[in-house]
Amino acid sequence: MKLLLVRSRILPVVVLVVAATATLSAQPAGRGGRGAPLSTEDQAAIAKLAELPPWNPGAGVGDFSLAPPFAPAPENAARDGVPKGRVETFQLPLAGSKFFPPAAGRDGKLNPDATREVNVYIPAGYVPGTPAPLLVCHDAMGMHDQKPAPYLPAILDNLIAERRLPAMIAVMVMPSNQRSFEYDTVSGKFAEFIESEVLPRVAKDYGVAFTKDPNARATLGGSSGGAAALSMAWFRPDLYRRVLVFSGTFVNLRNGPDAPHGAWEYHENFIPQATPNKPLRLWLQVGERDNGASSSGAGMFNWVIANQRMAAVLKAKGYAYQFVFCKEAGHVDRPVRAQTLAPALEWLWQDYKGTP
After folding, report:
1. What is the DSSP letter of 122?
2. pLDDT tens digits for 338-355?
3. Residue 160 CA to chain centroid, in angstroms?
4. Does the structure show a pLDDT above 60 at 197?
5. Mean pLDDT throughout 303-315?
6. Residue 272, pLDDT score
7. Cα–Cα distance between 119 and 124 in angstroms, integer?
8. Residue 97 burial (CB < 10 Å; 0-12/13-18/19+)?
9. Beta bridge partners of 18
10. CA distance linking residue 229 with residue 136, whole number of Å
11. Domain parsing of the chain, residue ranges
12. Read out DSSP for 59-82?
């Protein structure tokens, strides 16, 4: 998989984006298949997804479907008269990192001067030093995507101005050349990396402060970045409690002793067995033609079935979630994101009580 792959008086929110050399891209239908073809049970489960009620921006908790044509949300476009936040970009050296130091590339060579790109959106009117809500974006989603994928800062400008989102800071972070290791490892390590090495640098360089309230902190990602977004909140709900995922890689991609089936463990064991529920709110999406769409669920490498199973266990456990199955859509589909990112963000923060 190749994917380089938050007023009467509104509390400021900080969005952090970290970028490396990867770029988000849609994948061909069914890419990433493993093992036997779809079983009869698999086919029946996927067929039911196509019968889900239509999704719309005002939909509530539950399972929905969305069909083409996918029309960009009106909130995507920059608007005259709307105060614009500022976007800052810097390179964070990998050398010296306690979490992800430089690693050899495919050529076996190590670059000691390697960096990762971090983009920071600071909302208009932000008062320096004021603790703000936070949105962390993997693969810098919404920053460098090709059209029609939306530009996140424009969405935030519009929704914050209309008081449909709290005034948040977004931190958009790109991975290093260890993307799968960073994103697909099922642990809280990446959350701890952001907390220890990224946010302090952002705070120091740009005079911002981040709220410590985990209910005012969100994560966003697609594909393996989506798995990372969930891992950050699942293992560190003391830091993050809102999760937005496109084509989440909840499959057996990178496993270990604590997760023998990799991120497949989330819907197979972690979520069903967790008592009490984690205090999370989640928005999930998958495409009909997503990665592994033609392969058996038994191979634990079918993104459609993995996300369908995620929705089923979240429903069974009574989580606040929204799941959208997108007909005829591919992996981390750009037109789908153009239509859904803005309303998904609004839904994700719908219950937030941090602003009067």
Report:
1. E
2. 999 999 999 999 999 885
3. 20
4. yes
5. 98
6. 98
7. 16
8. middle
9. 118, 173
10. 8
11. 13-94+115-348
12. --SEEEEE-SS-PPPGGGS--TTS
Predicted model pTM? 0.91
- Higher pLDDT: 163 or 14? It is 163
| Three-state secondary structure call for residue 119 | strand
The model's pLDDT over 144-180, given as tens digits with 9 standing for 90+, comes to: 999 999 999 999 999 999 999 999 999 999 999 999 9
Cα 143 to chain center, whole Å?
A: 13
In the chain the beta strands, taken as DSSP E runs, fall at 13-19, 62-66, 86-93, 115-122, 131-132, 134-138, 168-173, 209-210, 217-222, 242-246, 281-287, 320-326
Q: What is the C-alpha to C-alpha distance for residues 258 and 261, in angstroms, rounded to an integer?
A: 9
> Which whole-number Å values give the CA distances from 205 to 168, 198, 199, 208, 265, in the listed order?
17, 11, 10, 8, 39
Give the integer Cα–Cα distance in Å for 155 and 166: 12
Beta strands 217-222 and 134-138: pairing type?
parallel
Kindly give the interhelix angle for 334-348 and 152-161, rounded to the nearest 10 degrees: 30
Domain 13-94+115-348 has CATH 3.40.50.1820: yes
Q: For residues 320 and 91, what is the distance between their CA atoms, to the nearest angstrom?
A: 36
Q: What is the pLDDT of residues 225-264, one digit of tens each?
A: 999 999 999 999 999 999 999 999 999 999 999 999 999 9
DSSP string, 229-283: HHHHHHH-TTT--EEEEES---SSSS-BTTBTTGGGHIIIIIHHH-SS--S-EEE
Q: How many CB atoms lie within 10 A of CB 140?
A: 31
Amino acid at 233: A
